[in-house]
Amino acid sequence: MNAPRQDLRARQTRLQDYQAMLARRLREARSLPAADSYLALQVGARNWLLPLADTGEVLDMRPPSPVPLTQPWYSGLVNARGSLLGVIDFSLFCGGAPTPLQPGSKIVVLSRQVERACAILATRVAGLRHAADLSLPHGDAAPPPAGTPAWEGQRFADRDGRDWQVLDVRALLDAPAFLQVGRVTA
């Protein structure tokens, strides 16, 4: 009977150790040149790189409180240390399926400026990436295809061949479609 309880404690300890290590590495990475450091996220089926200079904190997953008459991609509000924070299902915003949530999913705050802060749901946080560890896919620096949103930055590939897309947080926070959280009614 104690075995399941011990397994649960061991998993909780490993998760706490991982979270502490990730927090430590985030602090350390912030001392590196910001242009060279990214927080890597999986959001639905896509992999995103958030520049550390434009990224807030990583919060434990908790269900956002729904807000009526908002866009389908607006998941709702969470309380983050006394401040209300809007949470976006970024996969839905990008036209994909809802972000699948699983144990270990997180809420990632975009922007360190309180007045512009909001957050996105992340299926998982994949740690830190540095520009030196990434390459242009297929060695190509071609411009993005026509119609690509301004907030989709450079694409990279990691050593394992996975594609990563840089999220230009500032451009996203200025995008009219992103700012239109309220559902337009006719």
Automatic annotation (TrEMBL):
<dbReference type="GO" id="GO:0007165">
    <property type="term" value="P:signal transduction"/>
</dbReference>
<dbReference type="InterPro" id="IPR002545">
    <property type="entry name" value="CheW-lke_dom"/>
</dbReference>
<protein>
    <submittedName>
        <fullName>Chemotaxis protein CheW</fullName>
    </submittedName>
</protein>
<feature type="domain" description="CheW-like">
    <location>
        <begin position="35"/>
        <end position="178"/>
    </location>
</feature>
<dbReference type="GO" id="GO:0006935">
    <property type="term" value="P:chemotaxis"/>
</dbReference>
<dbReference type="Pfam" id="PF01584">
    <property type="entry name" value="CheW"/>
</dbReference>
<dbReference type="InterPro" id="IPR036061">
    <property type="entry name" value="CheW-like_dom_sf"/>
</dbReference>
